[in-house]
Amino acid sequence: MELKDFCTNEERTLTSEDKEKLLNQNKRLVSDYQARKLEAEAQKHWDLFYKRNETRFFKDRHWTTREFKELLAADNESPDIQNLLEVGCGVGNFVYPLIEELDVLHQRDKFFYYACDFSPRAVQFVRNHSLYDTKRMLAFQCDITTEDIQQHIAPGSIDIITMIFVLSAITPEKFSTVIKNLHKLLKINGVVLFRDYGLYDMAQLRFKSGHKILDNFYMRQDGTRSYYFEKNELAKLFLASGFEILSNTYIHRRTLNVKEGIDVPRIYVQGKFRKL
């Protein structure tokens, strides 16, 4: 099995078969009633997801310090503890590998960690972890599409926000509100480190008729939802909310196994955005 990643500004070129799959998705859309019900019950569906899967579903994200050098102590000469917020922390697959890596580098005090999630059950898994320490971390439940988070974090107090495979789970009409909330929390020159599903990812093309809610927005079998981002659309969202773009690109990943005839194309969109 071989993994190949490359960065590009180009969208995936669709085959005639790909185009046919996208057309078939339009044959039967999710009804307005069902779409409203999915939105109203979004927290319930994610809580059920973590009830079923507990801590087993997502792999630990050891790749984040490779992709986002801002997370490494060697890239920051400041002696002060920085505040890092992970939006959509899940069960801790990002924050705990980062803590372990920085501890090995003897940079235990680089960050104070804030970790929030929409699902109360996910937050409880984070709190139950053996590395959870209230002296260096605060995990809490909140809805990032509202101003709830300001009950836990003062505006203008965060140095780095990570948002990895989170915005795609939120209804597109609330994207702008979420980005503006991130802007309020950051210090001047604070950054958002972002990764999510990109347009025409394999998972998008696999959806059948009856799962499409809106353009590039879909319902999964378990009631959770997923959006697939176009790079320029993401840039406009951040620019409109007072950010500058440090980087914004597609990540194309191919999982190849020639012997077994496996060629799985995954597409992500990845960016770094700084508060002006």
Automatic annotation (TrEMBL):
<dbReference type="GO" id="GO:0005737">
    <property type="term" value="C:cytoplasm"/>
</dbReference>
<dbReference type="InterPro" id="IPR026113">
    <property type="entry name" value="METTL2/6/8-like"/>
</dbReference>
<comment type="similarity">
    <text>Belongs to the methyltransferase superfamily. METL family.</text>
</comment>
<keyword id="KW-0808">Transferase</keyword>
<keyword id="KW-0539">Nucleus</keyword>
<dbReference type="GO" id="GO:0030488">
    <property type="term" value="P:tRNA methylation"/>
</dbReference>
<keyword id="KW-0963">Cytoplasm</keyword>
<comment type="function">
    <text>S-adenosyl-L-methionine-dependent methyltransferase that mediates N(3)-methylcytidine modification of residue 32 of the tRNA anticodon loop of tRNA(Ser), including tRNA(Ser)(UGA) and tRNA(Ser)(GCU). Interaction with SARS1/SerRS is required for N(3)-methylcytidine methylation.</text>
</comment>
<protein>
    <recommendedName>
        <fullName>tRNA N(3)-methylcytidine methyltransferase</fullName>
        <ecNumber>2.1.1.-</ecNumber>
    </recommendedName>
</protein>
<keyword id="KW-0489">Methyltransferase</keyword>
<comment type="subunit">
    <text>Monomer. Interacts with SARS1/SerRS; interaction is mediated via tRNA(Ser) and is required for N(3)-methylcytidine methylation.</text>
</comment>
<keyword id="KW-0819">tRNA processing</keyword>
<dbReference type="InterPro" id="IPR029063">
    <property type="entry name" value="SAM-dependent_MTases_sf"/>
</dbReference>
<dbReference type="GO" id="GO:0005634">
    <property type="term" value="C:nucleus"/>
</dbReference>
<dbReference type="Pfam" id="PF13489">
    <property type="entry name" value="Methyltransf_23"/>
</dbReference>
<dbReference type="GO" id="GO:0052735">
    <property type="term" value="F:tRNA (cytidine-3-)-methyltransferase activity"/>
</dbReference>
